[in-house]
Amino acid sequence: MEINFSKMSGAGNDFIVMDNRQCTISLNESQIFALCTRRTGIGADGLILVEPSETLDFSMRYYNADGKPGSMCGNGGRCAAYFAWTTGITGKTASFQANENRYDAWVTGTERIKLKMTVPDDFRDNFYANGFSCHFVNTGSPHTIIYTEELDTFNVEDAGSAIRNNSELFPEGTNVNFLEVTGPDRISLRTFERGVEAETLACGTGAVAAALMSYRLGKVPSTNVTVTVRSGDTLEVAFSDDMREVFLSGPAKEVYTGTVNV
Predict the structure, then answer these.
(1) Are strands 132-138 and 142-147 parallel, antiparallel or unpaired?
(2) Domains along the chain?
(3) Cys-Cys link to 59, which of 21, 97, 155, 254 (CB 3.0-4.6 A)?
(4) Is 79 a catalytic residue?
């Protein structure tokens, strides 16, 4: 079966996006894994199917690079909204469903998307995992947070893998974020992503988690936080004082389009 796709990037998080509004695309775990595998496949951090919704503009079905269904992906959601706009599915404002939650998105500039996130929950402060002082919050995906003053040289792969696979603390796994506060309203972030099982160049829900936890702990004074990710791009996280209204903004673009034979 030949399938048309778009390769998209959200601040360095890359995705294979397919229009499945006709519900003709059915991929199994091994096929998605093969498509997302770099060098031998298209290569991506995840795969997104844009599907019909009975009540909203569309539904987003997200799979991690390992081929398994994923929790919410913030940059993936922004890319899906950009894809929907550029293909004429929606205008510059869109509402879509992902994991039974509603998300609203806006095209705010050239290749720039703003996404309203769900209300964060399950805040946990000051616990230890694998020898690291940690914090935790669920922003649509589970995120463990570790502060460091040596972010550039930190061994993200080893520490991230160990904590992600700490089944005693995280029976379903966790994403692991290492961050450094670099200014009054600025953070630098590196993320080890569950489902990719490696460091990625960006993580949207991770950027949200990092900004919210830094505000909660008094490490940043502002409710508008700029997060620099591994790609060098920046994401903006804006939220209300009670952290219930949360918005993620940043770049999203189509890298190329193609057809793949599955």
Answers:
(1) antiparallel
(2) 2-116+251-261 (3.10.310.10), 121-243 (3.10.310.10)
(3) 97
(4) no
